[in-house]
Amino acid sequence: MSAAKIKVLCVDDSALIRDLLSEIINDHDDMEVVAVAPDPLAARDLIKQHNPDVLTLDVEMPRMDGLDFLERLMRLRPMPVLMVSSLTQAGSEVTLRALELGAVDFLAKPALGIRSGMLDYAELIADKIRAAARSRPRQARRSDAPAPQALKAPLITSEKLLIIGASTGGTEAIRHVLEPLPANSPAILITQHMPGGFTRSFAERLDKLCRITVKEAQDGERVLPGHAYIAPGDQHLELARSGANYVARLNDGPPVNRHRPSVDVLFDSAAKHAGRNAIGVLLTGMGKDGAKGLVTMREAGAVTLAQDEASCVVFGMPREAIALGGASEVVSLDDIAPRLMALVAASGRAQRV
C-alpha cells in the first residue's frame, strides 16, 4: 500500500503563482495540490473541506491580509504554513513577521522570470513542503509579552565563541537563544539558511529585541564579545584569525549541502581556528547541513549542543548530528541559552584556576 500523499492548499491572488505551484507540486509523486484559492476568505471553506497537510500563503491579497489570516489560523487551527514572499526589503520584513506568527518557512518569488525562476527551485520547493508536513506548528508569541529576563553575565575572556547553525524554524529558535543573553556575552557567529536580502532584516529585527548587538557579518571585521554576526544570504561565513584577533570572513564559494551560506562551512572554520574555545549549537532545520561540522567541532575539543526533537520545528539537522555522534549534549530550546552561559562560566572558572 502506497503512503498517502501530502495534501497542499495554495492561497495566492496570482493565478500564475497558483498554476506554477500546482505544476511543481503535482509533478512529485508524494504530494498533490488538493485545491487553490485566490484569497483567505475562499481558503477558509477549502481548509474545512480538504483538511490539507500544508498551506502555501501569499502575503498581499485582496479581502484579507495574509498576516491577519495567518494570525487567526494559528490561533484557531494551527497547521503547517509556507509563506510565499517577494524578494524585497518590505517582503523580507513581512516574512519575518509571518515566521514569528507561526509560519514554518517561506518560498521566495524570483524578482524576474517568475516561471523559469520557480521551476529552477522545484526540488527546493518540494523539500520545503515535505519538511513543513513533518513540522510542529508553533503558536505565536504575543507581541505584548515581556522580554525574557536577562541571564547572569559570566566572567569571560574574548577567546570564547558561540557558533550557531539553523535552518527551517531557525529564525524563531535563534531569537529564543539570543534574546535572554547578557550584553557582555561571548561573540556569536550564526549561519541561518536564508536567501540574500532577508538576513539584513533578520539581523535588524534581532538587534531591536536583544541586549547584545546583532548585525549582518562583514568580511574582515573583528569578532567582538557582546556581538552576534549573521551570515549574509548567499555568502558563506567563516571564522578566521588575524594576529591575536578573531575576524569574520565571507566568500561566495560553491554551495555545500546545497546551501550557501552553509552551517558546515562555519562549523569547520570554528573547529580549525577556535577549537575548544568554541561552543557549537545546531538548531532546528531540514536536511543534514551542520551535522558533520558539529562532529568536527567536537573532535577539536568544543562542547557541542543539538536541539532536542520535542522543541524542534523540524528535527532534521540535529537528528543527523546526534546520529553521527556530533552532539555532546542534547538540549531543549528553552534550556540552550542558560546552558551556554553555564558552560562559559565554567570555562572561565577553569581558566582562572
From TrEMBL:
Superkingdom to which the source organism belongs: Bacteria
Post-translational modification comment from the UniProt entry: Phosphorylated by CheA. Phosphorylation of the N-terminal regulatory domain activates the methylesterase activity.
InterPro entries named in the record: CheB-like, CheB_C, CheY-like_superfamily, Sig_transdc_resp-reg_Me-estase, Sig_transdc_resp-reg_receiver
Catalytic residues, chain numbering: S167, H193, D289
Keyword Repressor: no
PROSITE patterns: CHEB, RESPONSE_REGULATORY
All residue ranges annotated as the CheB-type methylesterase domain in the record: 155-347
Keyword terms, alphabetized: Chemotaxis, Cytoplasm, Hydrolase, Phosphoprotein
One GO CC term on file: cytoplasm
E.C. designation(s): 3.1.1.61, 3.5.1.44
NCBIfam families for the chain: PRK00742.1, PRK12555.1
Described function: Involved in chemotaxis. Part of a chemotaxis signal transduction system that modulates chemotaxis in response to various stimuli. Catalyzes the demethylation of specific methylglutamate residues introduced into the chemoreceptors (methyl-accepting chemotaxis proteins or MCP) by CheR. Also mediates the irreversible deamidation of specific glutamine residues to glutamic acid.
Family: Belongs to the CheB family.
Name this polypeptide is given: Protein-glutamate methylesterase/protein-glutamine glutaminase
Classification of source organism: Bacteria, Pseudomonadati, Pseudomonadota, Gammaproteobacteria, Oceanospirillales
Gene designation: cheB
